[in-house]
Amino acid sequence: MQGARAASAARAPGGASAPATPVGEPLLQLRAINKSFGSVRALSDITMEVPAGQVTALVGDNGAGKSTLIKAIAGIAPPDHGEIYWKGKPVRIHTPRDASALGIATVFQDLALCDNLDIVQNLYLGRERLRARTLDENTMELGAKQALADLSVVTVRSIRQLVASLSGGQRQAVAVAKAVMGNAELVIMDEPTAALGVTQTAQVLALIKRLAERGIAVLVISHNLRDVFEVADRIAVLYLGRLAGEGPIAEFDTQNTVEMITTGAATPRSAANSAAPSTDDAKDH
Amino acid sequence: MSSTLRPGEPTVAPAAAPSSGAASEVIEELTASDALVAETFSEYVGGWWKRVRAGQSGILPVLAGLVLLVIIFQVLNSNFLTAANLTNLMTQGAPYILLGMAEVFVLLLGEIDLSIGYVAGISATVTLELAAYPHPEPWWVAILAGLAAAAFLGLVQGTLITRLGLPSFVVTLGGLLGFEGLMLFLLENNSVASGGTVGITNNILSDVVNGNLDPAVGWIAMIAVVAIAGFFFWRRDFLRRRAGLAAPPAALTYLKIAAMAAAGIVVVWICNTNRGRISTLEGVPWVVPITLVILVGWTFLLGRTRYGRYIYAIGGNAEAARRAGISLGRIRTIAFVLTAMTAGAAGIVYASQLGSISNGMDGGTLVLDAVAAAVIGGTSLFGGRGKMLHALIGGIIIAAIANGMGLLGLSAAAQYMITALVLVAAVTVDALSRRGATSTR
Ligand SMILES: Nc1ncnc2c1ncn2[C@@H]1O[C@H](COP(=O)(O)OP(=O)(O)O)[C@@H](O)[C@H]1O
Ligand SMILES: [Mg+2]
Question: For the CA atoms of B375, B376, B377, B382, what is the dihedral angle to 10 degrees?
Fold first, then answer.
């Protein structure tokens, strides 16, 4: 398994491999995704799509089901019912490994970086390059340099500095570079700007745009609508586990988005989803 | 062409010979090198100072502490810096160093192994009993059996800890008690052990500590080691420059090689001075190269292999390691086996030094000395930060305190208390530097 991963990673850092799906085509489609925790219906009949080469923002109030939805896509907590299509074909994503084999990479809020390792070591964690059965540091360092250069928005003093010494924006960049190095075609980010200051938020937004420019689909969760309107091509609004609205950014403005987040109504394009009353609206009240 | 180099493509550079590379790494750590960052000397010094303030001071401050200790003891008793005493110090320090290296594996994971003192005792008991008359096994069979027994104990504890998710502190505390019992059982139920003691009858086992290299062999071996390590130093920089990567300034590399040669010359010169009272006694004790080989081997494992990288990763952020597809249970279990095996080697050295192993062995104190050696050297109790070299420096410090205070005629009570003070100071530095490291974010 290590060998296979290493082989797929081998093509990645250059960023030369263009995703097969043309920009705008649905890369990922969700059909009637359902997930319950006991009596809590965390996701009900979610049907949406994530197009290639675009940034899709997933917004919604606390407890709306955003994290549950991305966990379903990332294979961390598979849905109870529903279908997932990847490039038009039905797929099963039961484990994180299934997801990464398809080309889905997730950057969680905690980033999953080892503070005691340097940037190169973090980028290659779990897929180290070997030569004569020992770590091939020079090759990994060159690959890591390239991977960060491809993102070209954040600079670091040295690629050999410990991750502990990086700023929040730099850490996010390292986590994203790590995700993309695995040849990802879809990068999912959970609240990437939540803990960041103004400058670092700008860096991360630039990073997201850069990914889309490279033909990678981005699904980003955010609470901050200003950020969303700055980077997103599409918006999907979750309200108490159902899809309150979804569409190109042009169909949304701050006002109707806020309304949709807080009440689940005011859909911009009369989506069928929002008309159907949630079966257990009472759950959170 | 180097700028177009991509991971995965075959590169022209031939593979580095691993062990000598690790040897140079050991030396390099002595200077807390930021070799991969700085290109000029002043950049290098600046980078070093930055890391000191961030709590990654490297080994230089600890070495400075050792020098201070040596000066104090020498001022108080001029016998401290004699060839005989310093050679004595090297052999006395070897069990602490080896036990400290054993502990580094699990400390890096953020775990602890309290049982290694008696694991060492059991390994020594098995080895000595197998090599004893009237039916002695060859020395190497006895040693392999002793190490295998230790490895087995490590496997049992590691499996309990990783598979059942039990805290290592509790499992190995059980080991501390249970293995003392097992050692007593082995010593009391074997005809070769009389009165709870089994002596060394095999010359080779005795020579581990008491045998010396021929003085000429000592010089030749030292020169060869320095030359090979120096070559790999230079070669590593050369390959980095050729790949278009930053390499440390050449002057610094030569300085390191010179320091390494100086240290080698001093050690061999001390050991080759006649320290016999009646007949000639000279040469480097076998235990010195034995300890160095284990040090280089484990440094190589930690620094240059996937396994070692995963130990650091787990110690730094276990969840990140798990998500990277690393099998935590396997890496952790193997670490407990390696810890126990290294402790087994320490036990054999310890028995060789004493000439026997007995039911009076205090494995509890030994394990505290081992943890102290690793932590004083700079290995963190919180996991993720540490090196094999730390156990070498820390072990020498522990041995120097015991040796120096013995020369001064201080009581065991004073020795324990001073060692405890040094340990608490080291742990405090560890905790403070950890705070420093996290606050720089
Ligand atoms: N592991 C879980 N067990 C039980 N309930 C859960 C679990 N995870 C999420 N939920 C519930 O599902 C709903 C959606 O949660 P979540 O996806 O975390 O929301 P968001 O990320 O949008 O804030 C909430 O009501 C939450 O309490
Ligand atoms: Mg959430």
Answer: 20
